[in-house]
Amino acid sequence: MKVIPAALKHTDLLIGEGVVKSEKRLKDTAFFADSAGVDPDLVLYEVYAKTDQAKEGELNWGLSLLHPVTVNGECCMTRGHWHENTDAAEYYWCVGGTGLLLLMDEQGHAWAEEMEPGSLHHIPGVLAHRLINTGDEDLKVACCWPTTAGHDYARVEAMPFPQRAYKTEEGEIEWK
């Protein structure tokens, strides 16, 4: 029998054949309440993804790595999105750090789930979702979603998440 090495490895990062890395800098965003005076080249988060499986029924796998930075007190967060295909659910698995998974329904009601190493989060396709790093180390979240899900960022821009997480000097989280 022939035995071959795994094409992908999920250690501290996602590495292997076909993995694409992207990073989001502050200058690439428009979703923070106030970014005045903050270095526009500040790296907020990185995404490592294996998404070249275009065939229906296949899955994508990714790792989001949010750095423990704030933008004028506002916690580091991802852009957030809805799925174009609202039948396509997603799983997030926290593999490091602490944070929140911010969820919002189609009526604009929002709530958050705590994320810590080992927590697993099922996200129905009808909910918008965003990651927020509330800790002092990188928040690492593995993601698995169907290739047919699609990302709808424009819908979040048209109906933004109603609350924002800020970190006080004492390290507490305040919602505004």
Outline of the structure:
With 176 residues, the chain is mainly beta. It is built from 1 helix and 15 strands. The protein has one helix spanning 153-158, and strands at 8-10, 14-16, 20-25, 43-50, 59-66, 70-71, 74-75, 90-96, 99-104, 110-115, 120-123, 128-133, 139-146, 165-167, 173-175.
Structure description:
It contains one helix and 15 strands, in the order βββββββββββββαββ. The protein is mainly beta and 176 residues long. The protein has a six-stranded antiparallel β-sheet, with no helix packed on it. Strands 10-9-12 form a three-stranded antiparallel β-sheet, with no helix packed on it. A two-stranded antiparallel sheet has the order 1-2.
The SSE order reads EEEEEEEEEEEEEHEE
Secondary structure class reads mainly beta
For the largest sheet, list the strands in their spatial order.
3-4-5-13-8-11
Main β-sheet, in a few words?
A: 6 strands, antiparallel
Key structural traits:
176 residues, mainly beta, six-stranded antiparallel β-sheet, three-stranded antiparallel β-sheet, 3% helix, 43% strand, globular
Write the layout of secondary structure elements.
Blueprint: E1 8-10, E2 14-16, E3 20-25, E4 43-50, E5 59-66, E6 70-71, E7 74-75, E8 90-96, E9 99-104, E10 110-115, E11 120-123, E12 128-133, E13 139-146, H1 153-158, E14 165-167, E15 173-175
Antiparallel strand pairs: 1-2, 3-4, 4-5, 5-13, 6-7, 8-11, 8-13, 9-10, 9-12, 14-15
